[in-house]
Amino acid sequence: MAGDDLIELKFRMFDGTDIGPNKYDPSTTVASLKEAILARWPQEIAPKTINDVKLINAGKILENNWTITESRAPVCELPGGVITMHVVVRPPMLDKNNERLLTKDRKTNRCACTIL
């Protein structure tokens, strides 16, 4: 495969920092990209699995089984340019006790307006 076939990607993190740019084969899956991101993630705040990370390109949330070719948006890309994908982390799940407590608090703090 020629080097011209590679796609140059960078990943914009939630805090505005970037990972990359790096070149990837067009047949690379989104799951592989997420694994590469997790390997280079700052360890003090790293997500646990690839399912905790979402990649967004041109407003689409990318599925893990898609390839880079399937997830590209050719209308938005400049030829030979770097494609920026946004990285979003799903917040950690609360345990059942905290979740019940938050649900209970929400119900007691509700107000209602009535327009007559």
From TrEMBL:
<dbReference type="InterPro" id="IPR039540">
    <property type="entry name" value="UBL3-like_ubiquitin_dom"/>
</dbReference>
<dbReference type="GO" id="GO:0005886">
    <property type="term" value="C:plasma membrane"/>
</dbReference>
<dbReference type="InterPro" id="IPR017000">
    <property type="entry name" value="MUB"/>
</dbReference>
<keyword id="KW-0636">Prenylation</keyword>
<dbReference type="InterPro" id="IPR029071">
    <property type="entry name" value="Ubiquitin-like_domsf"/>
</dbReference>
<keyword id="KW-0488">Methylation</keyword>
<keyword id="KW-0449">Lipoprotein</keyword>
<dbReference type="InterPro" id="IPR040015">
    <property type="entry name" value="UBL3-like"/>
</dbReference>
<feature type="domain" description="Ubiquitin-like">
    <location>
        <begin position="7"/>
        <end position="70"/>
    </location>
</feature>
<keyword id="KW-0472">Membrane</keyword>
<protein>
    <recommendedName>
        <fullName>Membrane-anchored ubiquitin-fold protein</fullName>
    </recommendedName>
</protein>
<comment type="function">
    <text>May serve as docking site to facilitate the association of other proteins to the plasma membrane.</text>
</comment>
<dbReference type="InterPro" id="IPR000626">
    <property type="entry name" value="Ubiquitin-like_dom"/>
</dbReference>
<keyword id="KW-1003">Cell membrane</keyword>
<dbReference type="Pfam" id="PF13881">
    <property type="entry name" value="Rad60-SLD_2"/>
</dbReference>
